Amino acid sequence: xxxxxxxxxxxxxxxxxxxxxxxxxxxxxxxxxxxxxxxxxxxxxxxxxxxxxxxxxxxxxxxxxxxxxxxxxxxxxxxxxxxxxxxxxxxxxxxxxxxxxxxxxxxxxxxxxxxxxxxxxxxxxxxxxxxxxxxxxxxxxxxxxxxxxxxxxxxxxxxxxxxxxxxxxxxxxxxxxxxxxxxxxxxxxxxxxxxxxxxxxxxxxxxxxxxxxxxxxxxxxxxxxxxxxxxxxxxxxxxxxxxxxxxxxxxxxxxxxxxxxxxxxxxxxxxxxxxxxxxxxxxxxxxxxxxxxx
Length: 294
Known about the structure:
lipoprotein; 9 helices; alpha/beta; 2 domains; signal; globular; D-Maltodextrin-Binding Protein, domain 2; Methionine ABC transporter substrate-binding protein
């Protein structure tokens, strides 16, 4: 089996990434050089990547996984030609990168949405949360806006202008909202459960609170407008958006064995989606327009 994982990835910068990938040849995107297709991922040791690379090998597609531990690196590495694809981010994150770096990396396929949930140790349902209750939300730029949209979808707050993926706590319309929000570090949303009525907690920290995803009082719905920016995607350079081999890799990710392993890795929270590339590009463009206006 022609499976390669580049481990560990040096974190010193782009040059180190390129060296780890085995050289300076960046012609693999067209498939003309015969080199493996290099894919930047986070968590290359997960079982679903094993299943994915085995399927790719069966079809004669030579894949090399390049493992990253720092989310800030796969996009520059792709833009600079050190990778052919990456698959680790949602549209909101990609939009923020493109706007900040004047880049045009492009989504070519969807993978899944990982719902963001509202949890409580004091209340058993949304209806139990009292008027004037306090809800903790993550304070990082990406998750804060999403948490606000979750609370609005749950009927707990109202956001100015209906809310967006760039909403801030200052956009909460107090007189139309049932609860107040308190931004805290994402890792503190779980520990805050002891002192607030509820917390919006990232999946990474749910287990830390002794909770299961099924304990959520509410979570954003994969088919809701508020969840669209958080579709996780395959990303290529814009000139490679039509690459047929890359599109076949997108399709392989949705094979039953890959989705099953991915679902297990997410604790059953992954909601798989196969939005077409043109729809993803439209969503991305809208997010980038909003970000550029702020």
